[in-house]
Amino acid sequence: MLFKIFLLSLFSIVILFFLTKLAGNREMSQLTMFDYIVSITIGSIAAEMSTSLENNFWEPVVAMLTYGIISTLIAYLTCKSIKFRRFISGKTLLLYDNGEFFRENFIHAKLDLNEFLMQARINGYFNLSDLQTAILESNGRISFLPNSLNRPATPNDLNLNPEADNVIINVILDGKLLVENLKKTGNSEAWLDKELKKQGIEDIKNIFLATCDNSNKLTVYMKIDKKNSHDFFE
To answer: DSSP string covering 186-212, please?
Structure first.
């Protein structure tokens, strides 16, 4: 009996993994309400299948595949058709603009003013005069646009031309040299040894992390084995 439960659980995990890869990589915040409900339903069927001791395990398999394929098909159609996307995912709603609230949109979104003010405070807007526009996105989150006097300054505002940032590459990870990553930086192992010796490091096994940025600067973080039990936030 236990062995059968083990096999059924393993089989359901394989199917869930297949359906997850089929659905693609999306964050929870990007899921529509329909996607969320389908995911819960598939998980519920998989859990039921794992403990089903009868010989009808193909029935939940077919149900899970049906939910997964239909959900994937709907996601494909929403990418191809704007009208279908709006029907499934909904539209954005303008909640606040230039000092005015749009009450009808609040009612349509089933959002009360207290919740809106709470979300504004969470995003750092305690004074509505600092806000220009607030929009309810189709995923349920509220986007806030500060007015021009309160938005962060950009390099264009300051007439600056900063150098473009590139990805910082890990060259040593947990004491192991990442040779391919080091090559991507345009450097050799001899260069790395030279840079490490400048910092007084002889053995890379003592390095927890070493990174190289676009200016060819090597930053090293050493391993610290001792435990720090002090709570800095008490």
So the answer is: T--HHHHHHHHHHTT---GGGEEEEEE
